[in-house]
Design brief:
alpha/beta, four-stranded mixed sheet, 8 strands, rod-shaped
Length: 185
């Protein structure tokens, strides 16, 4: 039994649909569109190929499932480039914001606080949400107001460089204080 070699995956190519071009079009007749997307009627495929060749363009099958399939005369490389741009633009818009966590403590040092601030700023610039947590241990439970001040001060430091808004106000639970912030557009 012969096994076919595995094809190399290229993530960029998987985004763009595969179009049948020129001689790859199997249909006998196609609904032909010119480069300005004007309808030229239902034409035999070989005549459509000839028209495209005369104009120094490619014949690209846009909708193979239609009856007859829709084909357009275009420069294939620029057509493919435009489709890639559209797909990447849509993906950039549809990117889901992830929730990233930053954990503080009641007695956090300045250097540690700056490190956490830089992390939070990086997350916010990427478009992610930042969940800020401060856990209280032992006798620290008596200082919930001070813990709230630590979180508020931390957010003020972030606001010096990036405009942020609260997605959740500071929530006081039994052993921890939490809030979620996002970049304000």
């Amino acid at each position: 039994m012969r096994v076919k070699p595995a094809k190399e995956k290229n993530d960029d190519d998987s985004l763009i649909p595969n179009y049948n071009v020129n001689e790859d079009i199997k249909a006998d007749k196609v609904r032909l569109l010119d480069e300005d997307e004007e309808h030229l009627g239902v034409v035999p495929t070989n005549k459509a190929l000839k028209k495209a060749e005369d104009k120094d363009l490619d014949l690209v099958e846009i909708n193979p499932k239609a009856d007859p399939p829709v084909a357009r005369m275009v420069n294939y490389s620029s057509f493919k480039y435009q489709k890639e741009k559209e797909i990447k633009k849509q993906q950039a818009k549809s990117r889901d914001a992830k929730v990233k966590g930053v954990r503080l403590s009641l007695n956090i040092g300045d250097h540690d606080k700056n490190t956490r601030r830089k992390q939070a700023e990086k997350f916010l610039k990427r478009g992610d949400k930042v969940k800020i947590e401060l856990y209280l241990k032992g006798r620290q439970h008596e200082h919930k107001d001070r813990a709230k001040q630590v979180i508020e001060g931390f957010i003020e430091e972030i606001e010096a460089t990036i405009a942020v808004k609260f997605e959740k106000d500071i929530e006081v639970k039994k052993h921890k204080l939490t809030t979620t912030i996002v970049k304000d557009n």
